Amino acid sequence: IEMLEDLHDAIEQDSFYFCYQPKVDFEGNLCGAEALIRWKHPVKGEVSPVEFIPIAEETGLIVPLGHNMFKKFCKVVKQVEDKQRGILMSYNLSGRQFLDPSLLDVLMGCIKEAGVSADSIELEITESTLMNDIESAVQVLKELTKHGFKVSIDDFGTGYSSLAYLKKLPIHTLKIDKSFVDDLLNDADDIAIISAITNMANALGLTTVAEGVEVEQQAEKLHELEIDMFQGYCFYKPLEESAFLALLK
Ligand code: G
Ligand code: G
Ligand code: MN
Ligand code: NA
To answer: What range(s) does the EAL domain occupy (predicted)?
Structure first.
């Protein structure tokens, strides 16, 4: 309850901002970045999105909050587009946002206002959100991709993807969950799972990203397993906006 009141106040006072965590190829070249929301609470300090996103989601506050944050995100996308071509900027959509009937209008309104292209934007949607209502998901994804947005399945491997549907979904990227990366160097099962995912992704023409890459040996093994892109503390932690923009050529 306390958290809920705080959330209302914070939305009114606009106390949220984004950090940006880069994604790189095996050579370490910058390919893109994911916006990760941050909240600096006046008393508690930094509150993790793991704590407040679920509450915002349950109460529906995520919809106005998401709208406001997507506007901020687009202003950064504009600066990225102006500085360096070919950088893909990722934005997380929760279940409630994904199924909100006004989603497409909101996204289109924001990109027009900022003067950015939908091609520069990737929407990260968790596997469980997509598989929760697959028929609706297919319809929403068709609309989003028709307008040029790219789509990544976040936390891939932790939900229950219907493999038959993966073929039908208009998606671009599979983002392999950190849990498969964590123990990769000690667990042959994780290697087998990642290998199966990259084989399938290659066959379906999808890009693969591994998240939570913390050490170089993990990156080397993942590269061997034909993962295309890497995200994790081994390369970059989530960066303040200005530090991220300073990476651009
Ligand atoms: O950066 P961090 O590890 O604290 O993020 C924790 C979780 O919060 C991640 O799973 C991430 O997907 C989610 N998250 C971060 N930013 C956003 C956001 O802007 N919108 C939504 N819906 N989820 C986010
Ligand atoms: O949206 P998603 O669930 O992919 O969010 C990724 C989360 O993981 C973010 O909260 C981010 O801060 C965190 N993260 C990113 N890289 C690493 C890493 O290398 N190690 C750990 N432990 N967490 C990471
Ligand atoms: Mn994500
Ligand atoms: Na994830």
So the answer is: 1-249
Atom of ligand 1 nearest to the CA of 48: 4
Cα angle vertex 171, ends 92, 95, to 5°?
35
Q: Ligand 2: list residues with CB < 6 Å.
A: 21, 36, 92, 124, 154-155, 211-214, 231-233, 238
Task: Assess whether pLDDT exceeds 80 at residue 162.
Answer: no
Q: How many domains does the chain have?
A: 1
Judged by its nearest atom, the ligand closest to the C-alpha of residue 66 is 1
Instruction: Report which DSSP code applies to 210.
Output: E
Residue 131, number of CB atoms within 10 A of its CB: 17
Give the pLDDT confidence of 2-13 residue by residue, as tens digits: 888 999 999 999
ipTM score: 0.95
The mean pLDDT of 193-211, rounded to a whole number, is 96
Question: For residue 83, how far is its CA from the centre of ligand 1 (angstroms)?
Answer: 26
Instruction: Quote the domain boundaries for residue 228.
Output: 2-245
pTM of the model: 0.97
How far apart are the C-alpha atoms of 128 and 3, rounded to whole Å?
25
Over residues 16-41, the mean pLDDT reads 97
- pLDDT per residue over 133-150, tens digit each? 999 999 999 999 999 999
- What's the gap in Å between 82 CA and the centre of ligand 1? 26
Q: From 53, 124, 126, give the residue whose CB has the most ligand 1 atoms within 8 Å, as the site to mutate.
A: 53
CATH no. for residue 227? 3.20.20.450
User: How far out from the chain centre does Cα 174 lie?
Assistant: 11
Ligand 1 first shell, C-beta below 6 A: 35-37, 48-50, 53, 69, 92, 94, 238
